[in-house]
Amino acid sequence: MAISETKLSAGRITMAFQRDGKTTPVLNDISLEVARGEFLCIVGPSGCGKSTLLSAMAGFLSPSSGEIRIDGQTVTGPDPRRIFVFQERGVFPWLTVEGNIEFGLFALPRAERQKRISHYIKMVGLTGFERAYPAELSGGMKQRLEVARALAVNPDMLLLDEPFGALDSITRLTMRKELLRIWEAEGNTVVFVTHDIDEAVQLADRVVVLSDRPARIQQIVKVDIPHPRDISSARYLELRNGIFEQLGLAHAI
Amino acid sequence: MNSLAEPRKWERLLWPLLAVALFLAFWHYSVVWTATKVFPPPLTVLKGVGELARKGLLWRYTGDSLRRVGLGFGTAALLGIPLGLTLGWYPAANQVVNPVLQMLRPISPIAWIPVSIILFGVGETTAVFLIFLAAFFPVVVACISGVASVPAIYRRAGRNFGLSPLQLLTKVVFPAALPQIIIGLRIALGIAWVVVVAAEMIAVDSGLGYLVIDARNSGKRYDLVVAAMLLIGLIGLALDLGFRRLRTIRSVRWGFRDES
């Protein structure tokens, strides 16, 4: 993305959880800027606080100190302009595919709702499953449904929390491709949390590498390879191995 | 038959029917062999049912019992569901009310008989009130735990899409808790049907419960006593089967996956 207008800025975010009278620091002085239309991935060891950071960006949690600003405004709570996508567990099992996509559209007139429903059903390839319930869908289909539900409200930001973590590896590859296609078509700003370094380097404009808990930013890696990316290219491997090293992981298992 | 194989349709009907036939045979021959003069054999009971039908009591009493259960259970659901949802929604309110609720819950509706007679006199209202009490607590408790066990992820998703608290309750929390609420209603209906018999024995002069006590008191008609018992059992079974069908509704079926 050529435009480098700031969409989100996190300034000196610190967070700690209280449990059994003990304070556990989770995020340690995180400062970060995300450009409008950027695809940003956050990687880090499991349990390091990546999801906590994302929840704070969504407004579900408030930081202990520091502040997150989106479009210059301090984030104080959740907002339909930025939709948080969980693993496929977030779809509502009591609603059909149509019903799920329609969920966030209650303020719109009926005709507009119908238009968006059919548009996004087509976009995520769920045509023919309009009346199906989530229990009748596969994991990958449920994940696509959740993405469609998020996109239907025209959010300018998508916050994805390990969205493909529960999928099998083949579906996961397909979903990455789909997500890139959708992102290129819609132009949203995407913040994508994952523990999969390959996934991050395949998708992101920049990869933020977090340390162990309490998480701080170890490094921000710019992925200067145009899409579609050749994952056997020297540059790809160089970037990927750099992150592995940064996290203290060996090249060989 | 392999235990993993799906039983065929005629098999699913055959075995229960066979069990009923065996039970009736056992009953019949027990009466014959023991030469009891008090307990009636199945055929005499069947004649008793016929007599009730001819007198017009069968439908009237069944209808009366069903109406009382309908009123008591319906009121319990109407008041209990909103109360349970509210308490589940506001944990602070639940902490205040819960001790009282948990203390009232184990008191059998039968123990309320004297109090309800003072309040409502001997009559229809007392019977309905006792059934209401029996059904009310299971409904409230099911709603509280139903709401409490709604995954946080659903509430978050609801809030993310800009729902007001009331919308969140009606569009997310209620449908997410509905399978559990239905289970609670089913339990409550079962208890209500048990309690209607006791209520009718003391408070009114119609209904199947009244029939049990009246047939014994006026002439020791044990054929009618047993007939009433069997009717109570069969109608209870029918009510439960009817209620179980609710879970096949598509918007709640997801909540019953693990049950047979």
Total strand segments of chain A: 10
User: So, CATH architecture of one domain in chain A?
Assistant: 3-Layer(aba) Sandwich
Strand content of chain A: 25-35%
Computed structural class of chain B: mainly alpha
At CATH's second level, what is the architecture of chain B? Orthogonal Bundle
Shape estimate of chain A: globular
Number of strands of chain B: 0
Mean pLDDT of chain A comes to 89
CATH class division of chain B? Mainly Alpha
CATH superfamily of chain B: MetI-like
Largest interface: A-B, 23 and 22 residues
Q: What value does the Rg of chain B take, in angstroms?
A: 22 Å
Span between termini of chain B? 19 Å
Q: How many structural domains does the protein architecture of chain B include?
A: 1
Low-confidence blocks of residues of chain A:
none
Order of helices and strands of chain A: EEEHEEEHHHEHEHEEH
How would you describe the overall organization of this protein?
- The complex is a heterodimer of chains A (253) and B (260).
- With 253 residues, chain A is α/β, with parallel strands linked by helices.
- Chain A has a domain at 1-81 and 158-166 and 188-253: Rossmann fold (3-Layer(aba) Sandwich).
- Chain A is 32% helix and 26% strand.
- In chain A, the strands form two sheets. A six-stranded mixed sheet of chain A has the order 6-7-8-3-9-10, sandwiched between helices. In chain A, strands 2-1-4-5 form a four-stranded antiparallel sheet, with helices on one face.
- Chain B has 260 residues and is an all-alpha fold.
- Chain B has a single domain (66-255), classed as MetI-like (MetI-like fold, Orthogonal Bundle).
- Chain B has helices at residues 9-34, 42-55, 57-89, 91-104, 113-120, 124-148, 152-160, 165-203, 208-217, 222-244, 250-253.
- In chain B, α3 packs parallel to α6, α3 crosses α9 and α7 (152-160) packs across α8.
- Chain B is globular.
- Chain B starts with 8 loop residues before the first helix and ends in a 7-residue tail after the last helix.
- Classes of the chains: A alpha/beta (253), B mainly alpha (260).
- Chain A binds chain B through residues 58, 60, 77-80, 83-84, 86, 89-90, 92-95, 103-104, 106-107, 133-135, 153, and chain B through 151, 153-154, 156-157, 159-162, 167, 171-172, 175-176, 178, 250-255, 257.
